[in-house]
Amino acid sequence: MEKWREELTAEEVALVEWIDGRDMEMYGYRRDTGSISLATIGRGLAIAALDSVRRQVTRFPYWWYSLTQPTKLSAQEYWKYRRSWEMVFPGLPPSKRKD
């Protein structure tokens, strides 16, 4: 139950408690850290922003394809869900798949 103490740094714990401290207290958890530094808050916000940008960049091929080839639905769906297709059919796009 206390495995998070081994895996998270003190800075990460402080950031989680800063974000979700009220809910933790509502469910009976106690806070382990005191105040949080502005540098830690800044780093946490920067990491969240970079993660958001990364997610948008991974969707870019789908958006580009849907703008340039809007009538090819099967290929468009492949680009939207390509990670799932690649897990099910490694190296084989759905248009070349033999059922």
Describe the protein's architecture and organization:
This protein is an all-alpha fold and 99 residues long. The protein has two domains: 4-58; 60-96, no CATH class. It contains six helices and no strands. It is elongated, with a radius of gyration of 21 Å.
Can you tell me the overall shape? elongated
Structurally, how many domains make up the residues?
A: 2
Profile the largest sheet: none
- How many beta strands in the DSSP annotation? 0
Cα distance, first to last residue?
46 Å
Q: Percent helix among the residues?
A: 55-70%
Assess the beta-strand content as a share of residues: under 5%
Uncertain spans: none
Structural class: mainly alpha
**In DSSP terms, counting alpha (H) and pi (I) runs of 4 or more, how many helices?**
6
Give the structure's gist in a few sentences.
The protein is mainly α and 99 residues long.
Annotation keywords:
6 helices, 99 residues, 0% strand
Topology:
Blueprint: H1 4-7, H2 10-26, H3 38-58, H4 60-68, H5 73-80, H6 82-88
